[in-house]
Write a structure and sequence with these properties.
single chain, 793 residues, alpha+beta, seven-stranded mixed sheet, four-stranded mixed sheet, 26 helices, 31 strands
């Protein structure tokens, strides 16, 4: 947690900071972040990281900043770190050497035990680019970068400015720090710790073995005890080279010197792989003939000068025979056939007519090029004998445009992101190796019509499916159905379902840039549950392939069912009788049961392309080895209250009946206190129980019920929750049914009002008496019609 006011004052005195530095730090601590992070221009991922050290959620603008935040969270020398400190104005020079002022917002303010620093996070590629484009401000060399303008500004009042350069070499350390932090917050297993201690006493101090071998010797299944000893310093490992989440590849030892000697010996024996180019059959034979000729093992018909050139080439390539490959493609006249003016005209036509948002095809663009060429000849820009390039050449020039650049110009950023080259695996962040380490959440509009009105067989809707899928194992963790468009309730419902099934939540949730995922209420709920949120770059669907691939499987399953939307997209080409709305037999209960069986009994028990084990078996094995994975979240009233939906308007307290919502009264004994009579209170709606709401009274959440209190066991029977979803998410169905009831009541009232005016009232004459053994005569024989007091003729 951050320092108190007295602790901060003593910290300033201990470091002997200047008044300007103290004011800047105090301004940072007393105010919110200087700006809101976003990913509007770059393909960066936005993080919301719940910091245990700071006690709140830290906003991070990229995965590099998240990596640094994890290291600062783990570093015991760091007292506090603050994101997005106040904006300052630094002095630098432009490209012409003129002095100019530039606004600047650092990434972090770091308060350490021995010094306070301003930190800016950059990648090595960014530093190299900035040093080339802005040499007056940026320097780069030896893996270190320096922002001269920011360094001079903060150096004037005694604060050090540091540029932290993210490196792919730090990927393993960052992942290990996250796991070590999670182990710190858990309780040790006494039995496993004793078994591990007995095993370590029997080992020699210089023994080096893998984490998996140590677990097998100790007879334990969980790696938590071993990782706890590593965190305490009783066991040594190299956090920069090993992954604690890969036990068979992580080496540990009681002596860090023995471990270092082992790595030195292993590196000395290893050899770097040789990169060999692929040769065609003709090139391979000719290269071999040249090698044989240099050895003098065959008769050759080349000149001594050629042999000397081959020997020189082989010497410069350190004896690599691939350097002798023939290069016939470089023979002949390789000069351009077109003049520079013709080249410029062709490039201009491609840029002006082909790379346009109108998405003109190549034939139309070529016609425009021919027109441009004729106008250039008439205007004297080209010689009178100049000939335009052929359609084939123009097509080749268009195809030479980089795919991403062409997609950006013709279809926009989304198409450019889809056409972009994949990220280099050498700089890509490590994929999660533990169950519940990272999960993806997204929505899918089901391609199936569902009946929602029991009184109308053809009134249907297409429900939205929200799902959560684990990235490391591919197992689907949770799902929820809703008839509303994706909103914050959809996001919170899938969190509820994950807690209901597993009793825990993922450590990090990856989402897209939908408005529902950026709602304050959703982010507050994640922060209270201790879950990090990572936002995918906008317009980059490939970053969500984990969840999108499962949605394709669901779509293929739904397309085999009656009521699917296969014919809906065909418009008038398909008859109305063959469209999904007319043929569906599904309701919400049947669809939920089918999706549960397809997901949790079929899909999760199938093997993925990366492993022969089923997804559920991978999850069980990973959870047994790392039981602290995920964020504990028991399915109780507290979690339901955190993830309940706030009601827009406040509810007034009636002293006799409580509060009214959805035309029903909800009560709790605390509502009938005289202090709250006729007062308006903030309330939240329980989406899975139509007979429950949550009311805030004096900062405390109070559960109010309609009818008898009690909560059904949703882990065994989810029917009551589906009933509530139908009631609260289909107001149009309630309106239709209310209208139908009103019409039926009006018809009945009109019928009897008309009947009472036209019906003849009967008059009963004197009733005869009968003996016990005489049967009753028919009723019609004793009744005469009566009209206005006169008998009918």
């Amino acid at each position: 947690m951050p320092m108190s006011a007295s602790e901060f004052d003593s910290y300033i005195k201990r470091l002997d900071l200047s008044s300007l530095a103290a004011d800047y730090i105090r301004n940072t601590r007393d105010n919110p972040p200087a700006r809101k992070v976003d990913s509007s221009r770059l393909r960066n991922t936005i993080w919301r990281y719940p910091s245990r050290k700071m006690g709140w959620v830290v906003s991070l603008e990229s995965s590099e900043e998240h990596a640094l935040a994890v290291q600062l969270e783990y570093d015991s020398e760091v007292v506090e770190y603050w994101d997005q400190p106040p904006r300052v104005t630094v002095m630098t020079k432009d490209s012409r050497g003129r002095a100019c002022r530039i606004p600047y917002v650092p990434d972090f303010l770091l308060l350490g035990e021995s010094k306070a620093k301003i930190v800016q996070v950059k990648t090595a590629e960014d530093c190299e680019t900035l040093s080339t484009t802005q040499p007056e401000r940026w320097t780069w060399g030896g893996g270190r970068a320096c922002d001269l303008a920011a360094r001079d500004y903060f150096g004037d009042f005694g604060l050090e400015h540091v540029v932290h350069v993210g490196s792919p070499k730090d990927r393993r350390r960052i992942e290990n720090c996250e796991l070590l932090l999670r182990i710190r917050g858990s309780h040790p297993n006494a039995r496993e710790m004793r078994a591990l201690a007995r095993t370590l006493l029997r080992l020699r101090p210089d023994t080096v073995l893998s984490l998996g071998q140590l677990m097998a010797k100790a007879g334990i299944q969980s790696a938590s005890s071993v990782i706890r000893l590593i965190d305490q310093g009783d066991l040594s490992t190299d956090l920069n080279r090993c992954r604690l989440s890969a036990p068979n590849d992580c080496l540990v030892s009681l002596n860090h010197i023995a471990l270092s000697d082992y790595y030195i010996a292993a590196d000395g024996l290893g050899a770097s792989p040789l990169s060999i180019e692929q040769l065609s059959d003709r090139e391979l034979k000719e290269t071999h003939a040249r090698v044989v000729a240099l050895r003098g093992a065959s008769q050759h018909s080349v000149s001594p000068r050629t042999l000397r050139r081959w020997r020189s080439t082989l010497s410069h390539a350190d004896g690599n025979p691939i350097s002798l490959r023939p290069r016939h493609q470089q023979k002949g006249n390789r000069g351009a056939r077109l003049s520079s003016s013709e080249e410029d005209l062709c490039a201009h036509s491609i840029r002006e007519h082909y790379l346009k948002p109108e998405y003109v095809n190549i034939s139309a663009a070529y016609a425009q090029y021919l027109l441009d060429h004729s106008l250039a000849v008439r205007g004297g820009q080209l010689p009178s004998l100049a000939i335009p390039v052929s359609y084939t050449t123009f097509l080749q020039r268009c195809n030479r445009v980089p795919t991403e650049l062409a997609a950006q110009a013709r279809s926009g950023p989304r198409s450019a992101a889809a056409a972009a080259n994949p990220v280099d695996p050498r700089v890509r962040h490590l994929s999660p190796a533990r169950f519940f380490e990272r999960a993806h959440v997204d929505h899918y509009l089901c391609d199936l019509h569902v009946k929602v009105d029991p009184t109308d067989a053809f009134y249907t809707k297409r429900p939205w499916l929200t799902a959560m899928r684990d990235q490391s194992t591919g197992m689907v963790l949770a799902l929820s159905l809703s008839f509303r468009s994706p909103n914050r309730n959809s996001c919170l419902s899938v969190l509820r379902d994950c807690s209901r099934r597993h009793g825990r939540l993922p450590e990090t949730i990856v989402v897209d840039n939908g408005a529902e995922f950026h709602s304050s209420y959703f982010e507050i709920a994640l922060a209270r549950l201790g879950v990090s949120k990572q936002s995918r770059p906008p317009g980059c669907p490939r970053f969500g392939g984990t969840i999108e691939s499962w949605f394709r499987s669901v779509k293929a399953f739904l397309y085999t069912q009656p009521g699917n939307t296969a014919n809906d997209s065909r418009g008038r080409s398909a008859s109305a009788t063959h469209k999904g709305r007319k043929r569906t037999t599904w309701n919400l209960y049947a669809l939920h049961a089918a999706l549960e069986e397809f997901t949790f009994e079929y899909f999760n028990n199938q093997s993925s392309a990366e492993s022969t084990e089923s997804r559920s078996d991978l999850a069980k094995r990973s959870l047994a080895m790392y039981p602290e994975s995920g964020q504990p979240a028991p399915f109780d009233d507290q979690l339901l209250a955190i993830t309940a939906m706030p009601i827009k308007r406040k509810l007034s307290v009636d002293p006799a009946r409580g509060v009214r919502h959805l035309n029903r009264w909800f009560s709790n004994p605390r509502l009938f206190d005289n202090r709250y009579q006729w007062k308006s209170l903030q309330a939240s709606e329980e989406p899975w129980d139509k007979n429950r709401i949550y009311v805030q009274i004096d900062g405390e959440v109070v559960i109010c019920h309609h009818g008898p209190s009690g909560r059904s066991e949703l882990s065994k029977d989810f029917t009551s929750a589906l009933d509530s979803i139908l009631l609260m998410e289909c107001p149009d169905v309630r309106s239709r049914q209310t209208k139908k009831k009103a019409l039926e009541g009006a018809k009945l009232a009109r019928k009897w009002a008309y009947t009472s005016r036209t019906m003849v009232a009967p008059r009963i004459e004197k009733t005869p008496t009968y003996s016990a053994d005489t049967s009753l005569p028919p009723l019609a024989e004793n009744i005469t019609p009566y009209t206005n007091g006169k008998e009918n003729s």
